[in-house]
């Protein structure tokens, strides 16, 4: 079994690790220009961004060749849009002649800083039985159960994910404060290799996924988002180490 995953704050790596199998970071596959995947079972585990998947994942899904008897998609999300994200990915695969056998989602801490006070969000989600949810999904996958929940959550606005992504990325900006220590964690956790240190301060290119990994993992909290509720509160899945995020995402040498 091959488990392909994308993570910025560790939730999806945590899910991915529960399945056993070979863990493969999608940003590393993209970096290595590796778009051929074959195994008897293949899973793709990713976060919901703006009711769809992150840009890098959408680009990957347009290109990757997957040869398998059983392809499953799992998304983690904080509020809603999970079924929208799964439906879009499933349709992209279908158009490319690749069958998706199973989809499901796991509710976890929402890491979208501009909207949530992280301390309140972590408190709100503290009693979720996440391990239990993943165990159920894992049993389905082991039994190669065929299951597609195909509910469309957002029917009132056409292409809601495009509208959301454009308006949110326009509205919220990552800001660099004065306390940067030049530790380069931001450059190492960026799955796009979109950040470099110039004059000892991070500067951003134009391929940002808005995953917010740079902001969440910034040691001095010098990276912030305009209008965010509480710039002192940051999130990393408590079971995942910073070194694991770096290993997953690092594009620089
Ligand atoms: C840019 C961005 C957009 C997001 N959009 C949504 C969304 O539309 N719906 C939702 O339920 N959660 C949304 N989230 C929350 C993440 O999907 C959720 O926290 C996920 O578990 C994070 O996974 P990770 O820790 O592996 O990065 C968003 C997070 C980010 C950073």
Question: What is the topology?
Answer:
Elements: E1 2-5, H1 11-18, E2 22-25, H2 26-31, E3 36-38, E4 41-47, H3 55-63, E5 65-67, E6 70-77, H4 82-95, E7 102-107, H5 118-124, H6 130-142, H7 160-171, E8 174-176, H8 185-189, E9 195-198, E10 201-204, H9 213-217, E11 223-225, H10 242-249
Parallel strand pairs: 1-2, 1-4, 3-5, 4-6, 6-7
Antiparallel strand pairs: 8-11, 9-10
The structure holds flavin mononucleotide.
Flavin mononucleotide (FMN) binds near residues 11, 78, 79 and 108.
Give a description of the structure:
It is built from ten helices and eleven strands. The chain is α/β, with parallel strands linked by helices and 253 residues long. The protein folds into two domains: 141 residues, Flavodoxin domain (Rossmann fold); 88 residues, 2-Layer Sandwich (Alpha-Beta Plaits). The chain has a five-stranded parallel sheet, with helices on both faces. A hairpin with a 2-residue loop joins strand 9 and strand 10. It is globular and about 50 Å long. The protein starts with a strand and ends with a helix. It binds flavin mononucleotide (FMN).
